[in-house]
Write a structure and sequence with these properties.
Blueprint: H1 3-8, E1 11-16, H2 24-35, E2 39-42, H3 49-59, E3 63-68, H4 73-86, E4 94-99, H5 103-112, E5 116-118, H6 124-134
Parallel strand pairs: 1-2, 1-3, 3-4, 4-5
Helix pairs in contact: 3-4, 4-5
Amino acid sequence: MSAEQESESIRCLVAKVGLDGHDRGAHVIARAFRDAGFEVIYSGLHNAPDEIVQAAVQEDVNVLGISILSGAHNTLVPKIIDGLKEYDAFEDTLILVGGVVPDEDEAELKEMGVAEVFGPGTPLEETIEFVRENAPQR
C-alpha cells in the first residue's frame, strides 16, 4: 500500500469538547490532516463527551483528536475514554489531545490511554507523521 493509499484510509475526528470556544487550532489541524490525505470529520464547538463518543463510533474513525484549551482536560478526556471503552472502540482508536495541557498532566493523560499530547507550536508535519505511524488500520 502506498503512503497516499494509507493516508486515504485514515479517518479522523477532530473534536472540540466542553465550553471551550476557541477553535482556530482545531481548524488548522483538520485542514492539515485533510491536505495530508486523511478523511476528516470536524465536530464543531461545544460538544459533550458523550457526543464526541457517539460521533467517533458512528463515523468509525481510527483517530480521535481532542482539541481543548479550557483546562478541563482532566475531567473531559477521561469521560471520552470511558465512553469509547463502553462501545469497545477504545482499542481501535488512536487518541490525541491538542491544546494547552500542563506538563504535569500529560503523563496522567497518557496513562489513561491518550497516545500523544500536542501543544501549541507543534509542527503540523510532526502530528501528521505521528498519525501515519500510529493510526490503527481497518
